[in-house]
Amino acid sequence: MSLLELYDPSLMGRRERVAIEYDRPGGGTASLTFGELDARSNRLAQLLKSRGLSRGDRLGFCLVNRIEVIDLWIACVKLGVIVVPINALYKEREIRHITSDAEPLAVVTTAAQMPAFPTGAACWDVDTLCAEAAAMPADRPSVELDASTPAALVYTSGTTGASKGAVLTHGNFAANALAVASCWNITSDDRYLAALPLFHVHGLGNGVQTWLAVGCHMRLVARFESATAADLFESYRPTLFFGVPTMYVRLLDVPDDRARAIGKNARLFVSGSAPLPAQVHEAFRAKYGHMILERYGMTETLMNASNPYDGERRPGTVGPPMPHVSIRILGEDGRDVADDETGELWVRGPNVCAGYWRRPDATAAALHATTPAGSMDGWFRTGDIGKRSADGYITLEGRRSDLIISGGFNIYPREIEELLLEQPGVREAAVVGVPDRLRGEVPIAYLVAEPSLDETALLAHLRTQLASFKIPRGIVRVDSLPRTALGKVQKHLLPPFIQAGAAP
Ligand code: MCA
Ligand code: AMP
Mean pLDDT throughout 313-342? Predict the structure, then answer.
């Protein structure tokens, strides 16, 4: 099934129905019906076509949430153009890697964001593009699409260092949307509050695709702002909310009476992208009267497992596999472990990406691996470590890689370490994640450095090079880094990080 076939019961079948409400740039909100969304995306598709984009070409976007991201997504789906989402917090260094690898014809962004782009990268201003599109004919372009047509290249690092583009097809997104809708009872009666960034698959894959599949009402906001979140919940009265744990921690600050009233209007709160601490689960239940439903996904595989909608939502677990998804947990010997034993999770199903963009080596390692016990061809190696209970609930216990997840955003220590090593005065660097009540984890840098190194100037420089969530929250000077005989840094042997002012 192509995504257009998934969307048409909404785009064609519910033309008069209000699809989306969003913030108007000058203040207040505006809304569009499914029919209007269909026509706008047809016009934009016609413009993109006239600018030279056709099936298989890449088009990037680097934008915070706004209606034009939806227009662009649907227009690209209609053309078979591959969308390359770029985190709007990224700086030039981070963007350069993606644009040089994906080679998009252009990246749609704002005039304010353009200075962050590498010289020579083709940038299209979103406002100019959409104003021009309004004058185009509203005929839907005719393009052959099917489940195997690539829909997006989403950059992630999997279990290793450098960021790679996961090729997600129409079929991946469609299968995931249908599984999500059926698992969580999402129907056209729902009101979905979309506060997750659309440049990641949590917001784009689960949020946008499921909304278009079921044809419910969506309120799109630029981003989750903790200070105004309660007002938004009260005025919009969503039945459905998807968030990362940091959002739920922020929502615990809402006064009890307001939280109770918000909970009464809601049907379902879903959490994912990072572990939801059991105490947040319990505090949220006490305040809002809802058990958050926790699920587990990955950029490369969309959703893998979910606690049940009806049935026990077990804190600390991510539930059984999603419909049509199989999960195996293998030990070091490549054999399936017994119940309650720990191993690595491997996933197979219509949700699993086609591979990594122009990276046959990485694709082979992730999707066509051989273990000591035999071939795992077609199974995706997640790098996540976990176990399964006798009644089928999966608990994640860690990762093979040293990935840090902060506020739901992924941080690859190697990227920060490499930048640190480029700085004068830094001789060795190791970056690790330390627990943080609000963001789950935050990065800390351990440095072997010249005594004269100016840490304030170093951090100021990092801020010009990296997205804000990657900036180390602390620097620890050490005489040497603990290493194995082969020279690999043993991060678990680094001295503990003690926050300034905290009791040792
Ligand atoms: C934060 N900032 C943002 C956003 N979030 N800017 C633009 N868009 C956003 N969505 C910036 C702020 O401007 C600020 O930058 C800094 O980040 C911290 O903001 P703060 O207000 O302190 O935010 P917070 O209360 O800590 O909340 C942060 C957040 C954000 C809203 C929870 O971390 C977030 O949106 N996380 C979602 C990430 C996500 O969608 N991950 C899914 C990956 P400055 O410091 O410069 O002022 S996909 C995935 O993992 C798989 C598939 C899965 O399982 O889902
Ligand atoms: P990403 O590369 O952004 O798609 O991040 C995927 C990773 O997020 C997974 O491999 C897991 O390690 C982690 N993750 C996603 N959902 C959960 C969850 N509910 N609990 C713990 N970790 C999660």
Answer: 97
In this structure, which ligand is nearest to the CA of 199?
Answer: 1
For ligand 1, the distance from its centroid to the CA atom of residue 375, given in whole angstroms, is 39
Q: How far apart are CA 310 and CA 422, in angstroms?
A: 53
Contact assessment for residue 273 and residue 202, using Cβ atoms and an 8 Å cutoff: yes
* Token pair 């009644």: residue: 391
CATH class of the region 3-223: alpha beta
Give me 459's structure tokens: 């951090």
CA of 110 to the centre of ligand 1 (A): 19
The pLDDT tens digits for 367-412 are 999 999 999 999 999 999 999 999 999 999 988 888 999 999 999 9
Q: Is residue 423 in contact with ligand 1, taking CB distance under 6 Å? A: no
Compute the mean pLDDT over every residue in the chain, rounded to the nearest whole number: 95
For residues 386 and 371, the answer to whether their CB atoms sit within 8 Å is no
Token output for 177 = 């949307």
In this structure, the residue with its CA closest to atom 21 of ligand 2 is 275
CATH topology of domain 404-493: GMP Synthetase; Chain A, domain 3 (3.30.300)
Angle (deg, nearest 10), helices 455-465 and 413-421: 120
Task: Count how many residues are written for the chain.
Answer: 504
C-alpha dist (Å) from residue 150 to 58, 174, 355: 10, 12, 11
CA of 407 to the centre of ligand 1 (A): 6
- Mutating to test ligand 1, I would choose from 69, 409, 462 the residue with most ligand atoms within 8 A of its C-beta, which is 409
Nearest CA residue ID for atom 15, ligand 2: 273
The 8 Å CB, 24+ separation contacts for 415-419 are 415/94, 415/161, 415/163, 415/466, 415/470, 416/443, 416/445, 416/462, 416/466, 416/470, 416/472, 417/445, 419/93, 419/462, 419/465, 419/466
Domain 320-399, classified CATH 3.40.50.720, yes or no: no
Is 196 strand, coil or helix?
Answer: coil
State the closest ligand 1 atom to the C-alpha of 201, by its place in the atom list counted from 1.
Answer: 48
- Residues 432 and 443 sit within 8 Å (Cβ to Cβ): yes
Chain segment 272-310, per-residue pLDDT in tens: 999 999 999 999 999 999 999 999 999 999 999 999 999
Q: Are strands 58-61 and 106-109 parallel, antiparallel or unpaired?
A: parallel
State whether the beta carbon of 221 lies less than 6 angstroms from ligand 1.
no
| Residue 308 DSSP class | -
Distance from the alpha carbon of residue 296 to the mean position of ligand 2, in angstroms = 6
Domain positions in the chain are 3-223, 320-399, 404-493
CA of 438 to the centre of ligand 2 (A): 17
